[in-house]
Specification:
By secondary structure, the chain is mostly helical. The protein is built from 5 helices and no strands. Helix 1 (about 5-30) packs antiparallel against helix 2 (about 30-60), helix 1 crosses helix 5 (about 105-125) and helix 2 runs parallel beside helix 4 (about 95-105).
Length: about 130
Amino acid sequence: MSIQQKLLTFIVRSNWLLLIIAGTIGNLTATPEVTLGIVAGGLIVTINFHLLYRTLKKSLTPPYLASPNVVLVKYYIRFIISGLIILLLIAGGYVNPLGLFIGLSVVVASIFLATLYALKINNFKEAV
């Protein structure tokens, strides 16, 4: 398995793990609106990450190479839908914006952890 595939697997697993951990901590310590914000934000960003992965994999795998414009259109459609969902959640008062912000940070945290993981792997290879 290549380092890229290992990192992608690490990010996907840590997305779900961080979402579960953040949701559990929110459920134990915060109001239901904050907890719902954490879970909703985490689901939005994690599902978007998976859809982006699928779009890029299908678009960049020969022999079905897609136009960059098709990839961009799909990206912007997902972006607009996500924005509308976030707007409806906040405007409707269903979630706390701070909880939503925490939930939306799940993928960023996963990518940060994956970077640390890659540095550890790289440094370990050099030490051996």
